[in-house]
Write a structure and sequence with these properties.
Number of domains of chain A: 1
Shape of chain A: flat
Radius of gyration of chain A: 16 Å
Oligomer: heterodimer
Structural class of chain B: mainly alpha
Helix content of chain A: over 70%
Number of helices of chain B: 8
Order of helices and strands of chain A: HHH
Structural class of chain A: mainly alpha
Number of strands of chain A: 0
Shape of chain B: flat
Number of helices of chain A: 3
Largest sheet of chain A: none
């Protein structure tokens, strides 16, 4: 458990970023493998950029508003 | 030589080496320079071994498509972490890294332990281990960046090796520069714009991470590799907007806190007044 936590802290150390990026990757994988989602493949690039920005905004919002009392 | 890779590795490494140098300097000044430098050299050798073995293994055995996807995701996570911290520091939500404060704090800790014996030139295990640990821990991020940047930019095994060499060259140059400047001035390198470097590296890692992760999923970016500049511009613009927004949020929070502090004070005054 300690090792997993150390690796997590070393690579990302932020649950919001980790969930955001993982979610984006899962959706991209689905778009790439499920044939009914094939028409969405052209939007994979913009989707990835938006997902990255959304993760960044989400984690910064959390930090800004959780530090309200400080 | 792949200059974009070398530059990214140089900037990222400079930040980490400045942080490691502060501890090596404390050990050098308080314990002795022999133990400090031996510890730092042992850590650098361990890191070089790590880059050589892991890097070569990745180059030889992992298919490029898989590598780009995995490394793209890792760079994305790593880059977002750096970018988030740099934005928070610019916005005032997190304290700027203060090398002088770290220096004083470590110095005080060593003095409390009675480790101040700079006059002795004998090898000191505690000083060696402290120096080794600080360089190794800070250098692990550098090793990670060198390996990931090096292996994911290329299209074949030969250019992947050249990528690792370019990234390692950038890191080595940064290390030598920090040691040279540090050895000349012998004070914590507080004038190095650490947060600016972290911000730039955060943008670069996020840009490359997005690009390669996208390519791993078969995304065909417009303008091919030139789209890296467009991605960097998008993230740079977004980061500036976020910094301005967070500064405004912080100001509002401070104003609200001041107002709420002022209200009970006036009530108290009324209660005390006859």
């Amino acid at each position: 458990m300690k090792i997993i936590k150390a690796v997590y802290n070393f690579i990302v150390g932020d649950m919001v970023i980790l969930i955001g990026v993982t979610l984006a990757m899962v959706i991209l994988a689905l778009i790439n493998t499920v044939s009914t989602l094939a028409p969405l493949r052209g939007f994979s690039g913009p989707f990835l950029v938006i997902a990255v920005l959304a993760s960044l905004v989400a984690t910064l919002s959390r930090e800004a508003f959780s530090s309200h009392g400080n | 030589m792949q200059w974009a890779i070398a530059l990214s590795a140089f900037l990222a490494s400079a930040v980490e080496f400045v942080e490691a140098f502060t501890i090596v300097l404390v050990v050098g000044v308080t314990v002795n320079w022999r133990s400090a430098l031996l510890g730092a050299l042992a850590a650098v050798a361990t890191l070089a071994l790590l880059v050589a073995t892991v890097g070569v293994a990745l180059v030889q055995w992992v298919p490029l498509d898989v590598l780009r996807l995995v490394i793209g995701i890792l760079l994305l996570l790593f880059g977002l972490k750096w970018l988030k911290n740099a934005i928070m520091r610019y916005a005032g939500l997190k304290a700027l890294h203060d090398e002088e404060a770290i220096y004083e704090q470590t110095l005080a800790e060593l003095r409390t332990r009675g480790e101040v014996k700079a006059s002795s030139s004998r090898f000191d295990l505690f000083g060696f281990l402290l120096s080794f640990k600080s360089v190794l821990l800070e250098g692990l991020e550098v090793a990670f960046i060198v390996i990931t940047f090096g292996v994911s930019t290329a299209t074949d095994a030969a250019s992947r090796s050249s990528g690792i060499a370019s990234a390692a060259f950038g890191a080595l140059l940064a290390g030598l520069l920090v040691i040279l400047v540090g050895a000349l001035v012998r004070v914590p390198l507080k004038n190095v714009p650490e947060n600016t470097l972290k911000f730039v590296v955060g943008i670069m890692l996020t840009t490359f991470g997005t690009f390669w992760a996208g390519e791993g999923f078969g995304v065909e970016w417009p303008f091919s590799d030139a789209f890296l500049f467009i991605l960097a511009a998008i993230y740079l613009g977004a980061a500036f907007v976020l910094i301005a927004w967070l500064k405004r949020v912080k100001k509002q929070q401070r104003d609200r806190a001041l107002t709420s502090q002022a209200v009970p004070t006036s009530k108290q005054t009324q209660e005390v007044a006859p």
